[in-house]
Amino acid sequence: xxxxxxxxxxxxxxGAGVASPAIAQGTTDVSFFFPVAVGGPITKLIDAYAAExxxxxxxxxxxxxxxxxxxxxxxxxxxxxxxxxxPTLSVLLxxxxxxxxxxxxxxxxxxxxxxAEDKAWLQGFYPAFMLNSQSEGKTWGIPFQRxxxxxxxxxxxxxxxxxxxxxxxxxxxxxxxxxxxLTKRDGGNTQQWGTQIPTTGFAYWLLQSLAIQSGSVLAxxxxxxxxxxxxxxxxxxxxxxxxxxxxKVMAPGTIDWGTTPRDFFERKTAMMWTTTGNLxxxxxxxxxxxxxxxLPANKRRGSPTGGGNFYLSKKATPAQQEAAVKFVxxxxxxxxxxxxxxxxxxVAVSPGAxxxxxxxxxxxTFPPAAVARDQLEFALAELSTHENQxxxxxxxxxxxxxxxxxxxxxxxxxxxxxxxxxxxxxYR
Length: 428
Hints:
Elements: H1 11-17, E1 28-34, H2 41-56, E2 60-66, H3 70-83, E3 89-93, H4 97-102, H5 116-122, H6 127-130, E4 134-135, E5 138-139, E6 142-154, H7 155-160, H8 172-182, E7 184-186, E8 189-192, H9 203-214, H10 231-245, H11 260-265, E9 271-275, H12 279-285, E10 290-293, E11 303-312, H13 318-331, H14 334-344, H15 357-365, H16 371-375, E12 379-380, H17 388-404, H18 409-424
Parallel strand pairs: 1-2, 1-3, 11-12
Antiparallel strand pairs: 3-11, 4-5, 6-9, 6-10, 6-11, 7-8
């Protein structure tokens, strides 16, 4: 289950997550909002971690609440913050960092990390993940369930098309050439598309991968300036539009994020671009041998990072904050980070996790699990700005206008940049 597939949580779940600071004499309660619907495998994993931590730390009780999608979870967290009783700890998108700072809803972790061991732990995460976790010398988020975009392909379809089933396209030109061979047409109907890049839900994320590959950085580190209309970004959007319109190897119009894995399983597409967080989903549901590779390169390789970070409530009591930091340190230790990665498909957040015996054994039996980790060498921060949801919506709407043909790519990106400028000028 990937962070971009989570469905709506319930109002009852919201109420269950905000408990009184002390649930028993001498016990510190850590209320914990987590972005997933009630029930399912992810919740069982988190419940098990909370219970295990409680056994080892009987003076602390971690109470998870499954609060819906990431978008719904941040709304619930901020609503609770304004009411004065926010959850002590939340997992929200790494790109929500500036929003949480601007709302004065979070406190940095640095003040709770005093010893050399504490500081070594903080320095142990992959640098690419820390780009969306730190700002102005402070650490606002701790990486937990993180991802990159990878390419999945159907090895049987490759073989049928006369392609090497063990070789993924290495660059944009090969991506098109392979997709042309993989597209199956019967008269006026297309039975199998060569490739599929989603353009709803998280279109900005997929476009950003193409933009990085073309040499564009969509936003600065301060989150107050964008480059949506840069020539390299235009090159990226033009390529995305051309896959359907010019090359006719991808379905025309918008392509849904949520149904893309199913289209892959049902052989409606031979390749797909989606998160490594779908890795376990693909492993469990693909009825054919599949491959996983880094995204094809243009001028360079590249993918934005993605996924969620832990955030610490500014309004929690000092005791709750200390207890929450202890839980975050505990759950991100290499052995647990490795197990979380194996169970979910997310990238383990530290190099130390890949040195554990359990992860080394996992990579021997399932090498695709190493692809997203290896791609971190080429990864950049996911698009994140002040008023991030408004800025990304401006870009999303214009990407969809371009793929639907209602705007030329140049006009779409100029409009997106103009709206981003209007929103962000107050932050410069």
